[in-house]
Design goal:
The structure is a single chain. This protein is an alpha/beta fold. The chain is 35% helix and 20% strand. It is built from 16 helices and 16 strands. The protein has helices at 3-11, 15-21, 25-28, 53-66, 80-88, 94-97, 151-161, 180-187, 207-217, 221-226, 242-247, 302-315, 330-339, 354-366, 377-385, 401-415; strands spanning 42-47, 72-77, 105-107, 112-114, 120-125, 139-143, 169-174, 191-196, 249-250, 256-264, 277-284, 289-294, 320-324, 345-350, 370-373, 423-425. It has an 8-stranded mixed beta sheet with strand order 3-4-5-2-6-7-1-8, with helices on both faces. Strands 9-15-12-11-10-13-14-16 form an 8-stranded mixed beta sheet, sandwiched between helices. α7 links the parallel β6 (139-143) and β7.
């Protein structure tokens, strides 16, 4: 239904019809806010802030009660206050979504909601898992599971009590974090997973949130977790940790004494070829380096990547372009000179492996000597996945070319050609 047709339809309703429709969740909801089909035991909703997880949870509980599919429901939150303030009395809580003709009675002292048909929902806190020992339920809604202090014990106690009815089910609504219980649930074949981001519901959020919060955190580790609902984990043995990079992020930088654009050219062309790594970095008078830009791209022709690197060189007023020449030899310089003969160019040849070249650069991050001026999600993913054998998500591009270009740039700026055992210049 188009926006215009929807407006015509709504304007044609009587007051009574409009009142009923206002409580029709199937009409107003998005597909990823509705319960999935299938024989799942747990519905895991992983979504960003403002997605509408609470509304989806409240409406799911309401649908079970109104449909006679649940009589005893557990509502579990990080704290008892959260259960009451968000799941029950919040703007999208149960008291708000249930229609006046079938609204539950809330008794805070008893921690219960009671519907006209006798269905009862009881509030529980993850701070008190023992309270779940004994009560029986045929459904449960667990909110913000990744914030539970005693997550495993609380969830285990809940499962022991899910023994009423023919098919007890659980809904878990949470913004993801790499906690063991979440990993356990995602690996369970009986778990149905729904994913969503803040941007799915952006039009319904406050303009100040869209302007300030989204703009500030988009692309950062925190933003990718809280807005995009990405499950970000540190790879065991990786040279870089996400927390280290997040600590290195800055919104400003002082005057830079040198700026370098580094290029790691691909060995082939086409959509299945490796990326061409193109990363720029500069260094200040006090010896701190700043990663300035990542213009890496896949599928570029030699003229394409050379033109892209040259444009970045001039935009930043760089004083040097360095390029790895292991695969292309003198041809790399020839291609760059054809694009712009005025560029100050240096070819570098890797005489040792990637990890030997990358380790000294990773040490600079640990020492706090490198900052990221902005956010570079793809580059940072490669850095945080690199253990010596790249384990990134790309299926067709097996080489961390963005990271390689970063290493060449920071080596040129900070490690010095005489002091670096990993390169020789041409």
């Amino acid at each position: 239904m188009t926006h215009a047709n929807r407006r015509l339809f709504l304007n044609s309703l009587t007051d009574e019809e409009a009142a009923v429709l206002s409580y029709d969740w199937n009409f107003w909801s998005r597909p990823n806010q509705r319960a999935p089909k299938g024989a799942w035991s747990t519905w895991l909703m992983l979504a960003g802030r403002g997605f509408g997880k609470t509304r989806a949870g409240s409406e799911w509980v309401r649908s079970l009660v109104e449909g006679g599919k649940a009589q005893r429901i557990a509502l579990v939150a990080p704290t008892l206050h959260d259960a009451r303030a968000v799941m029950v009395e919040g703007d999208s809580g149960l008291l708000a979504v249930c229609p006046p003709w079938f609204k539950p009675k809330f008794e805070p002292s008893k921690r219960t909601l009671t519907w006209p048909n006798g269905a009862i929902a009881t509030l529980f806190s993850a701070e008190e898992p023992e309270r779940l020992r004994g009560p029986q339920h045929d459904a449960a809604w667990c909110d913000e599971l990744c914030a539970w202090k005693q997550a495993d014990m609380t969830y285990d106690m809940l499962l022991f009590g899910l023994r009423l009815g023919r098919k007890p089910r659980t809904l878990v609504t949470t913004t993801p974090r790499p906690v063991p219980l979440l990993k356990r649930l995602t690996a369970d074949k009986k778990t149905a997973i729904t994913k969503g981001s803040t941007f799915d519901n952006l039009k319904n959020l406050a303009p100040s949130f869209r302007r300030d919060i989204v703009a500030r955190y988009s692309g950062t580790r925190l933003g990718r977790q809280e807005l995009m609902a990405e499950l970000l984990e540190d790879t065991p043995g990786a040279l870089w940790l996400r927390g280290t990079i997040e600590d290195a992020r800055t919104e400003t930088h002082p005057p830079l004494t040198r700026i370098v654009v580094a290029v790691d050219p691909p060995a082939s062309m086409g959509e299945n070829a490796d990326e061409c790594g193109i990363v720029a970095a500069g260094i200040s008078a006090n010896g701190t380096a700043y990663v300035l830009d990542d213009q890496s791209m896949q599928g570029l022709s030699p003229n394409g990547w050379a033109s892209r690197a040259a444009a970045l060189y001039h935009t930043l007023e760089a004083d040097r372009l360095v390029a790895e020449v292991n695969m292309g030899g003198a041809m790399v310089e020839t291609i760059i000179r054809e694009i712009d003969p005025t560029i100050a160019y240096r070819g570098v040849h890797a005489s040792r492996g990637k990890i030997a070249r990358a380790e000294p650069v990773a040490a600079l991050y640990e020492q706090g000597r490198v900052k990221h001026y902005g956010t570079f999600p793809q580059l940072e993913d490669q850095m945080c996945n690199y253990t010596g054998t790249y384990t990134g998500a790309r299926q067709t591009c097996a080489s961390p070319d963005r990271m390689d270009a970063l290493v060449w740039a920071l080596t040129e700026l900070m490690l010095g050609r005489k002091n670096s055992p990993n390169i020789r210049t041409l």
